[in-house]
Write a structure and sequence with these properties.
- This protein is mainly α.
- The protein is flat.
- The two termini are 34 Å apart.
Length: 98
C-alpha cells in the first residue's frame, strides 16, 4: 500500500514542478486564452446561465456549487416518494443475514 502512495506523491510533485515549464513553453508571443460560451442559440434561463459564465467565472462557480446539492436533494426526495408509492420501503429494512 505504501508503494502506491509513494508513486502518487511522486507524480503530484512532478506535476507541480513541471507546470511552470509547460506554461512557458508557448513563449512570450502566445495570445492569452479566452474562455467563453457561445450564447447565440440560447434563450431564457440557458442564455442567462451562459451570460453568467461569460461575465464572471466566480459567480458561475458559486451558483453551480449551490445549485447541484439543492437539485440532488429535490431529486432524492422525489425518488423516495416514487419508490414508496410503488411499494419499495427503504425506511424499514430487514437484514437477510440473521
Amino acid at each position: 500500500m505504501f508503494k502506491g502512495w509513494k508513486k502518487l506523491i511522486g507524480l503530484v510533485v512532478f506535476g507541480i514542478l513541471a507546470l511552470p515549464g509547460i506554461a512557458i513553453a508557448a513563449g512570450e508571443k502566445a495570445a492569452p486564452l479566452v474562455i467563453v460560451a457561445d450564447t447565440r442559440r440560447f434563450t431564457g434561463w440557458e442564455a442567462w446561465f451562459t451570460d453568467l459564465y461569460n461575465e464572471s467565472h466566480l459567480y458561475f462557480t458559486l451558483l453551480t456549487v449551490v445549485t447541484i446539492p439543492i437539485v440532488g436533494i429535490i431529486l432524492g426526495v422525489l425518488a423516495d416518494i416514487v419508490m414508496s408509492r410503488i411499494g419499495i420501503d427503504l425506511k424499514h429494512r430487514d437484514l437477510a443475514e440473521h
